[in-house]
Amino acid sequence: MSGIFISFEGIDGAGKSTHIERLANAFRAQGREVVLSREPGGTPLAERLRQMVLNDAMDAMTEALLVFAARRDHLQQVIRPALDRGDVVLCDRFTDATFAYQGSGRGFDWQILSVLESWVQAKAEGGTTPILVQPDLTIWFDLPASIAAQRLAGARVPDKFESQPLAFFEQVAAGYAKRQAADSARFARINADQTLEAVWRDVDRSVRAQGLLPC
Ligand code: TMP
Questions:
Q1: I want to staple 108 with a disulfide (CB 3.0 to 4.6 A). Which of 56, 60, 66, 171 is the partner?
Q2: Among the atoms of ligand 1, which is closest to the Cα of residue 98?
Q3: 31: CA distance to ligand 1 center in Å?
Q4: Is the pLDDT of residue 126 over 70?
Q5: pLDDT by residue (tens digit) across 146-161?
């Protein structure tokens, strides 16, 4: 059985978590081993880097380098071994978040992010066109920034990103749209401004449409 890699994306407050859990159960019901993880994070080293990225002031390049360093460790220690075993990896955020947050949100150079992506995610080194580890499917929870802000208000003590103004999240959402336009076959865009059940139906449908769960 070949491994399956699904990432979940969206601006803060888009409401990914319950659906990730529910999808994990749907795969387990098919007898699949599921690895639940997140970025930045997923290994002891990457979790330490996460604390810095989420809490310490730094410029956008430093942020980008730290999230890619965390991603490299996560890929080496967790994601690639799990995919090699044939497991299902459900990852709360992956590289699209770097393009959306550091690229579009913070204004860091999209081209440099592409270079970092090709270094960090290369499956084999030395080829002219490296094959990259990419999710089989990216579920993008798309929600207007103003609604996400209402959902987040007072929910918990905001971290560095959650406390950004509305305009930042509008830019982040535009970054996700740009990533989707560049690789639309990999993306399922879900309208996250619906009831929990309606969002779940769309999530479930998109995974089955991709042939990752039986119809
Ligand atoms: P989370 O709270 O959804 O776990 O995400 C952590 C925060 O880190 C979220 O605000 C998005 C941000 N982030 C980046 O800025 N760049 C990245 O590459 C990733 C993966 C997350």
A1: 60
A2: 18
A3: 30
A4: no
A5: 999 998 887 778 899 9
**Closest atom of ligand 1 to CA, residue 159:** 10
Query: Residue 12's domain is classified under what CATH number?
Result: 3.40.50.300
How many CA atoms are closer than 13 Å to the CA of 54, on its beta-carbon side? 15
Rounded mean pLDDT, 162-170: 95
Residue 214 lies in a domain: no
More confidently predicted of 127 and 213: 213
Helix axes 60-74, 110-120, angle to 10 degrees: 20
pLDDT of residue 127: 63
Pick from 39, 50, 159 the residue to mutate for probing ligand 1's pocket: most ligand atoms within 8 Å of its CB: 39
The reported pTM is: 0.97
Q: Tokens in use for 39?
A: 């970025």
Residue 52 lies in a domain: yes
- Is 27 a member of any domain? yes
Query: Among 147, 214, 202, 170, which Cα is nearest to 22's?
Result: 202
- Rounded to whole angstroms, how far apart are CA atoms 184 and 133? 17
Of 20, 56, 22, 16, the residue nearest 36 (C-alpha): 20
In a domain, 63, yes or no: yes
